[in-house]
Design goal:
Nucleoside Triphosphate Pyrophosphohydrolase; 3-stranded antiparallel sheet; about 20% helix; homodimer
């Protein structure tokens, strides 16, 4: 049967720390290229749901157990990752406590979602959609 | 660099025919296994956005040019397609006119979304989420 080659599939998370004031979210400093700050996330395993992949990646990369709240949107621009076409399902999640960097991260930080640092990939666009979601309740707009 | 194997990626569409009364949507009768009625859809090409894949599949399978309205949700249960783990992004779209079956379809039909025929894959679940969306405006619930 026909199983054509399709884009790689990933998940990314906006982890809200609900035990802090303001709109504090977790970002990781990447150890691997491309460098810079990014949302926690990673590739989905065959046999794993998107939701399970998101919880697993959150735990691996931040040490946090998260509760997924909503699918913000899917990001699929072929140019969003220069390593190859990767589609990401992005979830908004909640957690509390102190994040700790996993092995894949050079560092970890907590930032105001309204004033994030410069971000890798299209993660600045994703956070822009997140801020709109916080204001309006609307998911990420369809694009392309 | 590391490009792990990830699930296959597909799109499916709930195409609302806005020039008809009621909640009329387009279903196709599959030519290839598994048999039965199903939402129009198919695999995403590398280099193609999800939105472009959805519009392309709608045109190929139904002859309809569609306007995408909203991402209903992502369906990622590893058991949802017995041919292999396939994650589907499902869009609600609008169109008008007469659908025509493409080469991949044995037939095409217009059905009331409230009373669909028996459906292949997890498409009955998807339509159940769609009816909830129509009633409440809520996207598909997170699962798994």
């Amino acid at each position: 049967m026909n199983r054509p080659k399709t884009p790689s599939l990933a998940v990314d998370l906006i982890i809200e720390l609900t035990d802090r004031t303001g709109s504090q979210i977790v970002l990781i400093q990447r150890r691997n290229p491309p460098p810079g700050w990014a949302l926690p996330g990673g590739f989905v395993d065959v046999g794993e749901t998107l939701e399970a992949a998101a919880r697993r990646e959150a735990l691996e990369e931040t040490g946090l157990q998260v509760q997924l709240k909503v699918l913000l949107g899917c990001y699929s621009d072929p140019a969003r990752d220069s390593r190859g076409h990767t589609v990401s399902a992005v979830y908004v999640a909640e957690s509390r406590g102190q994040p700790r960097a996993g092995d894949d991260a050079a560092g970890i930080g907590v930032f105001d979602a309204l004033a994030p640092p410069q971000l890798a990939f299209d993660h600045a666009l994703i956070l822009s959609d997140y801020r709109r979601y916080r204001e309006t309740g609307m998911p990420a707009p369809l694009r392309g």
